[in-house]
């Protein structure tokens, strides 16, 4: 039989052998005239799977009687680990132990046979185990078990199913135990009261036509009940403050002090829902009054619980926010509308941790916190959240964008499950819907406008097509033309750009402040305070300030760098034109931003803004370029720069 015909039906061989005697010669010999292809080392035969050793190697097991081979199985992807580069490892094993090793690849495992005397077989097996173990330590995903399978003196029991006698995991029992533990954990909770709403005659007498007309005229407010099964009646909106809080004179007194005339649309529709103890999802753009939509009912909720405040052993209201600035803003609103001596504390990373712990230990009713710092204090038992009955997830979409979901999950493990939960968001993507489904029970949703992204209509949006080199000239021209009453926030994409731009303007005798994550918290607070009070009228900031920065008299937003996505653009623009005022935004667009041109055009169209012809051409060029790349990909032609292979 020729070697070609013999090899056609044979398994693929990866054989490592030691040859010096006829008894242990390899199954194949290289023809006498065939030169060695690998020099003095081991060489490959014509078949790529056969490993050959140079002649003259000592014979395995020549001194003793012939022992049966030691057999075991090895995963195919670990064969190379045993052989080593150029056969170095397997030669080392054979030379050290005076054995011959044969490896035959199979599916899914290779068979390993070690020929030699028994002691040397065991030693060779130990060396192979050691090589594999070292490899697994560096590559944990290659978890393999070397299965010892002697070729002789092993009887297989026909009744043996091959399965271990390990008990199966009883998941039903685990779930049952978890439910029992959860029930036991919350068994001693005090009672909770949620419904405090007394509908006024004016609100109750509204006809459906009046309700629909009011909702349409107020930014097309839409409400829905997300409860499964039979739907509940959506409460009528409270068009005036008196309609919502006529039974709570202290709240009305605070509102009059603030000088507000009428509630915002989301406040009008949210208050009757929240005051009835129903979980709420509020979706509205920035600057629409979402903060007071949950704070005012929260004050009433805290003060009206059956258990007195001094006996609760912890806070009753928890507000989670994505950034320190938003947390400080909410805390300022709590202090501004103080209600019956309710105490609040702001917990955030970068602040004095010891001082925050001390404030909590003195006793608080409201905690406003960023998830990271609160999670830290919670894990170290500095704060007890079991007393929380009113939970707010403010700017939930931003918290998810910043990766706070794991911290939120840990925090809510210690908050009673029958709490009332309010969630606010500027957008309504899938991630926010999933979060709402997990942590809210039978909520109602109120959204102002549509669920599509729309910039506030009170802002005039100007777009300038330029280059990176001309940006400095554009902003200097704008800042020099500012009037003494103007106040502008300049958004940049990176912290380094904020520092460089602010330094450049200061050298030009232009007074500015900068706000970004690399600055100390005290410096950030000082910069924000100077900007709010008007001591400095130009603030250069990263997207850190695009959410929750509540400065009512900002007249201009200047987008020096376009943000990473169109959602952030809308949030930036929403920093001006707040509380009934009008504002203006200026956005610099370069060739690098052409991927967002189409989305920006859609935003401008919805807000009835002027669309520059250059922006339309940029969007068309991007579409054409994208189509060209797709066609090249289908045709298999190279695209762009050649890819490097390593």
UniProtKB/TrEMBL annotation:
Looking at the record, the residues that make up the Helicase C-terminal domain are 458-619
What is an annotated GO biological process for this record, any one? alternative mRNA splicing, via spliceosome
| Matching PROSITE patterns | DEAD_ATP_HELICASE (PS00039), HELICASE_ATP_BIND_1 (PS51192), HELICASE_CTER (PS51194), KH_TYPE_1 (PS50084), Q_MOTIF (PS51195)
The family database entries (InterPro entries) matched by this protein are listed as: DEAD/DEAH_box_helicase_dom, Helicase_ATP-bd, Helicase_C-like, KH_dom, KH_dom_type_1, KH_dom_type_1_sf, P-loop_NTPase, RNA-helicase_DEAD-box_CS
Domain DEAD-box RNA helicase Q, residue spans? 240-268
Motif Q motif: where?
240-268
Q: Say yes or no: keyword Transcription present.
A: no
A Pfam family:
Helicase_C
Bilayer-crossing residues are none
EC number, UniProt record: 3.6.4.13
According to the UniProt entry, its GO molecular function terms are: ATP binding; hydrolase activity; RNA binding; RNA helicase activity
Q: Where is the Helicase ATP-binding domain?
A: 271-446
Region Disordered: start-end pairs: 1-68
* Reactions the enzyme catalyzes: ATP + H2O = ADP + phosphate + H(+)
UniProt keywords, alphabetically: ATP-binding, Helicase, Hydrolase, Nucleotide-binding, RNA-binding
Q: Which PANTHER family match?
A: ATP-DEPENDENT RNA HELICASE DBP3
Task: Report the sequence similarity comment from the record.
Answer: Belongs to the DEAD box helicase family.
This chain belongs to which protein, by name?
A: RNA helicase
Organism of provenance: Dipodomys ordii
């Amino acid at each position: 039989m020729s070697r070609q015909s013999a090899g056609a039906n044979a398994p693929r061989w990866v054989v490592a052998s030691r040859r010096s005697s006829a008894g242990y010669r390899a199954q194949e010999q290289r023809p006498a005239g065939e030169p060695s292809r690998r020099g003095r080392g081991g060489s490959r035969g014509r078949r790529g799977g056969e490993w050959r050793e140079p002649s003259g190697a000592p014979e395995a097991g020549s001194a003793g009687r012939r022992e049966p081979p030691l057999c075991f199985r090895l995963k195919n992807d670990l064969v190379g680990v045993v052989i080593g580069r150029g056969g170095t490892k397997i030669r080392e094993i054979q030379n050290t132990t005076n054995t011959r090793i044969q490896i035959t690849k199979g599916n899914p495992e290779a068979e390993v046979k070690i020929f030699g005397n028994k002691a040397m077989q065991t030693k060779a097996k130990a060396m192979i185990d050691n090589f594999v173990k070292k490899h697994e330590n560096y590559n944990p995903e290659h978890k393999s078990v070397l299965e010892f399978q002697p070729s002789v003196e092993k009887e297989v029991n026909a009744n043996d199913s091959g399965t271990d006698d390990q008990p199966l995991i009883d998941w039903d029992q685990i779930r049952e135990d978890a439910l029992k533990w959860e029930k036991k954990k919350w068994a001693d909770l005090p009672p909770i009261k949620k419904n405090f709403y007394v509908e006024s005659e004016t609100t109750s007498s509204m006809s459906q036509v009046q309700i629909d007309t009011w909702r349409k005229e107020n930014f097309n407010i839409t409400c829905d009940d997300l409860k499964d099964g039979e739907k509940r009646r959506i409460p009528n909106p409270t068009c005036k403050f008196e309609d919502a809080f006529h039974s709570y004179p202290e709240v009305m007194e605070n509102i009059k002090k603030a000088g507000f005339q009428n509630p915002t649309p989301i406040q009008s529709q949210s208050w009757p829902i929240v005051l009835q103890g129903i979980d709420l999802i509020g979706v509205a753009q920035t600057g629409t009054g979402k903060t007071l939509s949950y704070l005012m009912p929260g004050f009433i909720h805290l003060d009206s619980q059956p258990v007195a405040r001094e006996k609760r052993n912890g806070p009753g209201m928890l507000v989670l926010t994505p950034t320190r600035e938003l947390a400080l803003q909410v805390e300022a609103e709590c202090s501004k509308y103080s209600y019956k001596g309710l105490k609040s504390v702001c917990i955030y990373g970068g602040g004095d941790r010891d001082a925050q712990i001390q404030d909590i230990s003195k006793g608080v009713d409201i905690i406003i916190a960023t998830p990271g710092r609160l999670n830290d204090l919670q894990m170290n038992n500095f704060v007890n959240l079991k007393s929380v009955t009113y939970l707010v997830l403010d700017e939930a979409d931003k918290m998810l964008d910043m990766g706070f979901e794991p911290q939120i999950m840990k925090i809510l493990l210690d908050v009673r499950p029958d709490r009332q939960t309010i969630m606010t968001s500027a957008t309504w993507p899938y991630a926010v819907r999933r979060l709402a489904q997990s942590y809210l029970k039978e909520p109602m949703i109120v959204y102002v406008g549509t669920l599509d992204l729309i910039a506030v209509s009170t802002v005039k949006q100007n777009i300038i097509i330029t280059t990176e080199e001309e940006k400095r000239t554009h902003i200097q021209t704008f800042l020099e033309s500012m009037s003494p009453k103007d106040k502008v926030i300049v958004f940049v994409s990176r912290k380094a750009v904020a520092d460089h731009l602010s330094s450049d303007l200061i050298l030009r005798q232009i007074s500015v402040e900068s706000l970004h994550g690399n600055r100390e918290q005290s410096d950030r607070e000082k910069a924000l305070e100077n900007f709010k009070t008007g001591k400095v009228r130009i603030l250069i900031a990263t997207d850190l300030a695009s959410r929750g920065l509540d400065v009512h008299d900002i007249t201009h937003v200047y987008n020096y760098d376009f943000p990473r996505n169109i959602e952030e653009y809308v949030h930036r623009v929403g920093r001006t034109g707040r509380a009934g005022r009008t504002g203006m935004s200026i956005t610099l667009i370069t060739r690098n931003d052409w991927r967002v041109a189409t989305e920006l055009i859609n935003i401008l169209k919805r807000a009835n803004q002027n669309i520059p012809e250059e922006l339309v051409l940029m969007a068309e060029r991007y579409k054409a370029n994208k189509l060209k790349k797709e066609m090249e990909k289908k045709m298999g032609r190279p695209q762009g720069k050649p890819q490097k292979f390593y």
